[in-house]
Amino acid sequence: MNEAIQDLSRWERAAAIAAFAIFAAFLLYRLPLGYGHDRDAYLMLGAWQHMLAEGQYVPSRFPGYIVAEFALGMAATLGGAMGSNALVALLSIGSLWATYAIGRELEVDKPLLLPALMAACPYVAIAASSSMDYMIAYALLASGMLLCLRGGMLWGIVLLAAAGGARLTNWALAAAFLIWLARRRDGEGWYGSVAALTLVTGLFYLPVWISAHLGFGWLSAALPDDQGLFGLLARFAYKVVQPFGLIGTLAAGALLLVQRERLQAAWRDPVFRLGLLFVTITLLIFARAPIEISYLIFAIPFLGLLLLQARLSGVLVLLIAGGLFAGVLHVDLIAVRYRDTGPCGPVMAEGARFAPGVGTGVLLAEIADARRWDRCFNRRPLLVEPYATANSPLPVPPHVARPRFPRQSD
User: Phi and psi at residue 53, in whole multiples of 5°?
Assistant: First the structure.
């Protein structure tokens, strides 16, 4: 690790240290503040409560997130929000190390900047300190990739499949990686590994299939189709710059434009293509469902991978700086108009207008609103049995009056 730090320039070292320090400080401060701002966290806990009470698995929402539901539910039953948040935090820290190790295995120059880029993104910090599935899925994905790169294909594929069990879209990323890996080594043999990945991933969804009475309606998700094509494009354009903020993204984009010939020079590099492949798959998925900015988390380390392979570490440092800035101050060019649904109602965007402004950063807003989210989401039917306090063990209800069916959320 000392060698990795010494490989960095002064500015790169400062950016990495700042990213890791702020990431660690935010995690420690955020862990005891409740399960988080996403109602899906409470749906997952409710699915766990329902299973314990009735002995029947009903997914929290389609298409099913069984690995995360079980992991978070068990941790919350033992230690409440602090327990489940701590589990996610430990897995997230492990995933940062795995990201660094992947860079080392791929012989990337300055691999320490890969986890630094992740740590600098405020949405990664929030996902790593609250009870959601994103970082559980990424930790399994990164660990599986690392094992496969080191020759442990059997257990690597099992972990990649578990990543798909946490979020089904990870199957596409895992399959793309296995195909890339086979072609990098000998050009053959990826059919069997992808078939094994698909089979084991499918095992995680057998309970979902059974709960759907052997139908396939669960292979769906709630999509913002009611807003039309223009609405989808507007959502995508607005949200895709948020992981590192408007300022950081524009600055990095400008430098990338100036140094674009480096991208062309790196085009034939296999590691560059792996990074580009993962970023492209993630963006295509997000373009179809531009809902949660956290969906983009899975592209971040591989964006760093392709930038480093193209010798564009300056662009990466600007993104790190932009992410750290966005955690404190939110700079925007438009003002989104929301429908008034009350403090606990769903967020319904109705339109937007050009109105440049500066607001509270992503990390500060997360901390400021933690108590409100705890009051709003600690209720039925999100939970089968509400808790007394967030950090008390999640209650296990003795019975459920009626079955609860999954909601199409994300």
Answer: -80, -40
